[in-house]
Design goal:
Blueprint: E1 12-15, E2 22-26, E3 29-33, H1 48-70, H2 88-92, H3 127-134
Length: about 140
């Protein structure tokens, strides 16, 4: 039963001394990570924040696909947009009043404001599909 299955995932990372690209491994996959040159990197891979957003977005897409298959819903395609506001002043130490990390600076949207998660009309879920969603076997 996949719902009751426990899975342990291990990620291993390495970097040479100084600045430059980092490399992470997950299973047999090499995953590059880097930062922009203005932050001491070489821009040879997505940033750590980009990887965090990729993780969130890919988790959502995988979940959508899993439930669509389970409910026998035909899906042509799925799109997801994940954004983060990042204020580098705290990280770089240029402003003591700004914390380091995502959402530490001024937000471009009001707290709680949401972007639409779907741009295409969804197909209605039948009562039988709704029962399977509420009470998975």
């Amino acid at each position: 039963n996949p719902i009751q299955s426990g899975v342990e995932i291990q990620i291993e990372g390495s970097a040479e001394a100084g600045f430059g690209p980092m490399s992470f491994r997950s299973g047999g996959h090499e995953i590059p990570v880097d930062v922009a040159p203005r932050l001491g990197g070489t821009d040879d891979g997505p940033t750590p924040l980009a990887h965090a957003l990729i993780a969130l977005g890919s988790c959502q897409l995988a979940t959508y696909r899993w439930w669509a298959a389970r409910l026998e819903l035909a899906v042509d395609d799925l799109d997801v947009v994940v954004t983060a506001d990042l204020d580098l002043r705290g990280l770089l130490g240029t402003d003591d009043h700004v914390g380091a990390g995502p959402a530490s600076g001024p937000r471009r949207r009001a707290p709680g404001a949401r972007r639409p998660i779907a741009r295409r009309p969804a197909r209605a879920v039948s009562p039988a599909q709704s029962r399977r969603l509420s009470h998975p076997s």
